[in-house]
Design brief:
By secondary structure, the protein is mainly α. Helix 5 packs antiparallel against helix 6.
């Protein structure tokens, strides 16, 4: 395997070139050791946020300017991302009502075989998004790592994106730990529609993973305050993700409750 930090050929628990950990702590559910830095167990899909890594630091803990850590915010947003992954795959799958074409240039493989070259840029992007989400919900880290960069590139080729497309791209970037970019994409969408529920959830998730609990709190609070009015708008993307919306609301409420309990992200934090 290659070291996740320096890229050198490595084996065992630590890289012989730079000393980086090559595997994380055992999964709290099944005991499997995933690759260092993994946010979900690639055997059972359990969140690894807050689990001590091989080097002794909690997985998902990031330094902050004050010398503390963002473990709480990381755990909050990690839970929300699990809800997003599980719920998003279903409506995207339902969009594909026609049988997939035979394998050809750009085929994704046997399950299912998809020829991306026969699709519009947005159709290809949505299909790759579906592939990544299904792999993530199954805990298949190898497939996530394989197809996630392709999916991100596909959405970038499909620009200009509508708000639903920006939501998909923000989720993919967050899954790839590109949280600053994810937040920027979500906030670009919110500049067009400041109360869009899906983009508020994506922005809060990315902000939480960056350790910006104040910004995450702002987006969660706006999401809950505007909830009824937004649901009444019955936007096409809300219909497409109707199974996801209850999860978004529940996770926003949970995140705010945890922030309140820990005294994080408030005006005096």
């Amino acid at each position: 395997m290659n070291c996740p930090r320096c890229g050198a050929e490595a084996s065992g628990n630590f890289c012989s070139s730079c000393g980086a950990a090559l595997s994380g702590a055992p999964c709290p559910s099944c005991g499997h050791r995933s690759q260092a830095g993994a946010r979900f167990c690639n055997r059972c899909g359990t969140s690894l946020a807050g689990t001590p890594a091989a080097g002794g630091s909690p997985a998902g803990t990031q330094p902050t300017p004050g010398g503390g850590s963002t473990t709480l915010a990381w755990a909050i947003s990690g839970v929300l991302l699990v809800a997003l992954i599980v719920a998003i795959a279903v409506p995207v799958l339902r969009r594909e009502e026609t049988p997939p074409p035979a394998a050809g240039i750009g085929a994704l493989g046997p399950a299912p075989q998809v020829d991306l070259s026969s699709m519009t840029p947005r159709e290809a992007a949505d299909r790759l998004f579906d592939r990544v989400m299904r792999a993530a919900s199954a805990g298949d880290l190898a497939q996530v790592q394989q197809f996630l960069p392709m999916a991100v590139a596909a959405y970038e080729r499909a620009e200009p994106l509508d708000l639903d497309g920006r939501f998909h791209l923000a989720v993919l970037l967050t899954e790839g730990l590109r949280n600053e970019e994810a937040l920027a994409v979500a906030e670009e969408g919110l500049a067009e529609d400041e109360n869009h529920l899906l983009l508020l959830a994506a922005a809060a998730d990315a902000a939480g993973q960056l350790g910006d609990t104040a910004k995450a709190r702002t987006y969660y609070e706006r999401l809950l305050a505007r909830w009824d009015d937004e649901v009444a708008r019955d936007l096409e993307e809300y219909q497409a993700h109707q199974g996801l919306l209850p999860n978004i609301k529940e996770q926003a409420e949970t995140a705010l409750a945890r922030m309140n309990e820990a005294g994080e992200g408030g005006p005096d934090a």
